[in-house]
């Protein structure tokens, strides 16, 4: 089968490889669509980061570069392994792409399995990947979806789960808490937009701060933002205060890893507000501890998701989140670099989510 294989920085090759072996407790998923993630772009330009370099196998997968890429995937069950009783051929599914040790408790009793030692992601740390024609996945990480969710939109459930978990970490993942509250999102990239979509689903008023006119337009046209402000044109802090009778935002989400955005969110929050850091920072940030103390700000981190997929799937299936506006391109595997990575690296404001069809079906 065809697969996108990561060898090293700026060295990704489309190759023919042998499909993975179906083993007890697993199922084979024919990949319908796989999204290109910002993490994939970082691996391409700056990596290896999550990807185990050649000669340094990952302690869970036992694999090192080259590995098959892709972790934002949807597909159809093609084959079911021994012991898997609740999946059948033809089921539509998405994958929660974790690699964790076998002795980690991944039940509802443990909300931190995603923070366990050596955790990595399918499609980064090994275990196959969604940028291939099919993938074998342990039953635990496969989530059935209703046929009412189109498979192309379903490929965005993984990044939407990132947004859901961030909103959950803020304590706003319910209408009882979020309705009528004002949320400020810094950055209208894919994760910022999808975090905003979750906030709107729970009834929050969403203000987005974003330099790019095209991204501000997408935020408004998709309905995930009530207001989209350019920090180059207005004082975001003052505008938020005007919208909140001088109080400030109730909750804010940092989705850029940019210092000035972090500072803006801190200044725009009301006393007792919550600030969630969603983006991955590769550098140190400056923090005004005095302001944090004097405003009693809750500063929280968030990474990926934990038990988030079922709730996220429910939001989409009930029509509370519409993922269709965020699909801005569809390509085949052969166009991964020239049409996919190049667009997202060099013209990123023109695209939100580019989906890849490894088989070429649906293009």
Automatic annotation (TrEMBL):
Reported cofactor(s): Zn(2+)
Pfam families: ADH_N, ADH_zinc_N
Enzyme class, broadest EC rank: oxidoreductase
UniProtKB keywords: Metal-binding, Oxidoreductase, Zinc
Entry's EC annotation: 1.1.1.-, 1.1.1.303, 1.1.1.4
Top-level taxon of the source organism: Bacteria
Enoyl reductase (ER) domain: residues covered: 8-356
Residue spans crossing the bilayer: none
GO molecular function annotations of the record: (R,R)-butanediol dehydrogenase activity; diacetyl reductase ((R)-acetoin forming) (NAD+) activity
Family: Belongs to the zinc-containing alcohol dehydrogenase family.
The protein's name: (R,R)-butanediol dehydrogenase/meso-butanediol dehydrogenase/diacetyl reductase
Species assigned in the record: Arcanobacterium wilhelmae
């Amino acid at each position: 089968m065809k697969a996108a294989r990561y060898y090293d920085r700026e060295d990704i090759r489309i190759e023919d490889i042998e499909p993975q072996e179906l083993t007890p407790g697993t199922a084979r998923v024919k990949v319908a669509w796989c999204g290109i993630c910002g993490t994939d772009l970082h691996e391409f330009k700056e990596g290896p980061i999550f990807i185990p370099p050649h000669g340094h196998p990952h302690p869970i997968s036992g694999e090192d570069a080259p590995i098959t890429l892709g972790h934002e995937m949807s597909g159809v069950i093609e084959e079911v392994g021994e012991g898997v009783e609740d999946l059948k051929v033809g089921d539509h599914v998405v994958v929660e792409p974790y690699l964790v040790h076998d002795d980690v408790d991944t039940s509802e009793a443990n909300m931190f399995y995603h923070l366990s030692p050596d955790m990595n992601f399918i499609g980064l740390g090994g275990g196959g990947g969604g940028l291939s024609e099919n993938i074998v996945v342990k039953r635990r990480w496969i989530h059935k979806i209703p046929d009412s969710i189109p498979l192309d939109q379903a490929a965005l459930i993984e990044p939407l789960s990132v947004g859901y978990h961030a909103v959950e970490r803020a304590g706003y993942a319910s209408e009882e808490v979020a309705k009528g509250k004002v949320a400020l999102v810094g950055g209208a990239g894919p994760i910022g937009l999808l975090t905003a979509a979750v906030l709107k689903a729970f009834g929050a008023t969403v203000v987005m701060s974003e330099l790019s006119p095209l991204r501000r337009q997408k935020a408004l046209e998709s309905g995930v933002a009530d207001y989209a402000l350019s920090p180059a044109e207005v004082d975001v802090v003052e505008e938020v205060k005007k919208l909140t009778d001088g109080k400030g935002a109730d909750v804010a989400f940092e989705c850029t890893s940019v210092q000035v955005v972090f500072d803006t969110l801190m200044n725009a929050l009301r006393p007792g507000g919550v600030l969630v850091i969603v983006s991955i920072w590769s550098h140190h940030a400056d923090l005004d501890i005095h302001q944090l103390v004097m405003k009693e700000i809750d500063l929280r981190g968030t990474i990926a998701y934990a038990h988030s997929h079922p709730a996220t799937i429910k939001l989409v299936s009930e029509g509370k989140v519409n993922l269709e506006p965020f699909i801005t391109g569809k390509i085949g595997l052969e166009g991964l670099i020239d049409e996919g990575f190049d667009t997202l690296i060099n013209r990123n404001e023109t695209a939100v989510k580019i989906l890849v069809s490894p088989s070429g079906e649906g293009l």
